[in-house]
Inverse folding.
DNA sequence: CATCTGTGCAACATCGATTGTGCAAGCTGC
DNA sequence: GCAGCTTGCACAATCGATGTTGCACAGATG
């Protein structure tokens, strides 16, 4: 490529078609009817545009209209099946509306979240989807100051609409199946179910813990604080906590509720060193679904959040211009062990 | 929000600081030294900017400089651990350079790929990373016409630099471990290893098939065409092909090389209906790694592509301005069954 | 005192598209 | 035959930031 020819602009089309730039603009963006441009001129311009390979400069358009056609979403990590599903749903919905999705992961770091949101706003995104932020309300403040429509998915915020999974119901179902199918342990120390992973500052986590506590108390008469280990999401930390717990108990507890796939990955990195029969006296469940997680060496009950419905519902609210802090809850599904949910890409992938 | 105040612009800062817009621009973007603006004026302007909460409109800047600060990447699907890792690496590298990553999935649909690339170019992305396109060379043509720097990762293209995994080596290692540890089958029909998944039009797949063929021929003396089933990536299709194969053979083959995680998901959806002992007479491997996939009910050998190095190397080429079609191959790692690779987010996620 | 050399900043054109406004040609009606 | 209307389009301002050019003023020089 010795000579770099610049991309053709609207003026190039105008020259080629023998029309003015404003007429070309109208002809190409559909406003020609309103602007009383003759159909004949329009077809001539369209032909010229196609002929020289014109495509609009969306930055220029965005600048003029102060709408970019970009929609942003921030989420904690890509390497997590749940958030990956959110991305996939988000892309599909955005494209359906002729928008360009911009997905950013912020690693649950509040500073990074803020920096990222500011960057997205600087690109004049039309709206922002916030999926699991460490500090949801700080983001709302920024968006409000910049007048950017935004919505929470997965984790609710208080200053904007939220579409989230019904965390209590999901955790209730998972807790029940764990508690009700726990084997009776010879060692009483191991007879109790445990909850591991997540942070109590996270509203979703605290709802899930509530459900867990209620179910355990209901079924077993009591629960002690040490049965809830909200040690964060980092796999390494979960692995260490789990190792310490099993040391104390002399083996895996009869029931284990793992909160989130990242924590579950940590659990797995501890499990790999255990003998195969270590799992025989335990029932394990994980809030969030992964198709491979569903078919592990030991059976795992999983809760599948409906990312499609979460995102679609959120988009509908955005389309409707909702800015009031409503809260919509979507029911998740309990997936039995060794069952594969046949997702949307079963025939594409 | 009854009154919507527009975002402050450079002129607002100018007014607040008692300076001209051009001086403000210079003061804020660092070019003030070169433009002989006094340090005192600069600090005054910076104070004013901070005070009224100014942030640059990146669309306007992009329009003027004809560089947007956006870098694009297209990939087939988000819901796949390998591509999710690519996204994660890509984000990190982009942010390190002060760029904003835009990641789009195109579902291996050539038309969608083209549409998406055109959209990204319309937003004036500075460069494009192409991870696994159905029609790589068509995309190169578009990028060249628009003068957009681009690079292939994962799957090579012929008109631009490529950084890919050493598919042959990876597949060779995986094939060897499968063939060498296959149990001897009482039923001779099931004694042979099979390759399933992917498309022969995909260069990575065809290299992996080459390696598989060579290893099988080398170790077992021969290979028949029916041992390679390149039925695409769709999980559903893989499940059906596998079911048909096992019907014919009267059970799982002694060795199974599954090409790609999406195909493996399909395999899994067939496996769930098999009795637990069905896997005892088989060795299974998968090209691509998933931490949960590594700990399934049956042992699985996996090949982990080094997404960090792939992306980093690609970024270095882009930084260096390389446009010649070089090919760089990165060695992948063979991960033994029931081993968890401790990824970068072990302490964050 | 007149000229010369810097210094510090403002004015203005520009990027490419959108949009309010204006103007000429063609037509109607009386 | 002329006001008045419609039709079809061009002109020019605008979005916000950048960078080139040029101007005013200060101090230095002869």
């Amino acid at each position: 490529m010795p000579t770099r020819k610049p991309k053709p602009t609207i003026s190039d089309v105008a020259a080629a078609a023998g029309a003015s730039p404003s007429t070309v603009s109208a002809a190409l963006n559909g406003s020609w009817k309103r602007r009383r441009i003759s159909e004949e001129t329009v077809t001539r311009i369209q032909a010229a545009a196609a002929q020289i390979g014109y495509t609009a400069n969306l930055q220029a358009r965005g600048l003029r209209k102060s709408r970019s056609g970009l929609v942003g979403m921030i989420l904690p990590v890509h390497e997590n099946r749940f958030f990956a599903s959110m991305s996939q749903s988000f892309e599909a919905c955005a494209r359906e509306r002729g928008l360009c999705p911009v997905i950013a992961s912020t690693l649950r770091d509040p500073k990074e979240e803020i920096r990222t949101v500011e960057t997205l706003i600087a690109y004049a995104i039309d709206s922002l989807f916030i999926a699991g932020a460490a500090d949801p309300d700080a983001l709302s403040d920024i968006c409000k100051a910049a007048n950017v429509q935004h919505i929470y998915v997965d984790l609710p915020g208080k200053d904007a609409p939220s579409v989230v999974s019904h965390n209590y119901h999901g955790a209730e179902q998972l807790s029940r199946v764990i508690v009700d199918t726990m084997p009776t342990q010879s060692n009483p120390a191991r007879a109790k179910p445990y909850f591991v992973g997540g942070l109590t500052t996270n509203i979703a986590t605290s709802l899930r813990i509530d459900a867990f506590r209620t179910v355990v108390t209901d079924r077993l008469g009591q629960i002690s604080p040490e049965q809830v280990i909200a040690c964060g999401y980092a796999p390494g930390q979960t692995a260490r906590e789990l190792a310490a717990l099993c040391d104390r108990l002399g083996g895996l507890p009869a029931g284990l509720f793992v909160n989130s796939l990242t924590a579950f990955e940590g659990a797995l990195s501890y499990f790999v060193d255990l003998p195969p029969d270590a799992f025989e006296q335990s029932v394990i469940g994980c809030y969030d679904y992964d198709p491979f997680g569903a078919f592990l060496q030991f059976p795992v009950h999983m809760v599948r959040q409906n990312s499609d419905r979460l995102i679609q519902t959120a988009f509908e609210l955005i389309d409707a211009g909702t800015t009031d802090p409503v809260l919509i809850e979507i029911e998740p599904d309990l997936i039995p062990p060794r069952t594969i949910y046949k997702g949307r890409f079963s025939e594409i992938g």
In short: Chain B touches chain A through 78 residues (CB under 8 Å). Residues 167-304 of chain B form a domain with the Rossmann fold fold (CATH 3.40.50.2300). Chain B has three domains: 10-56, 66-160, 167-304.
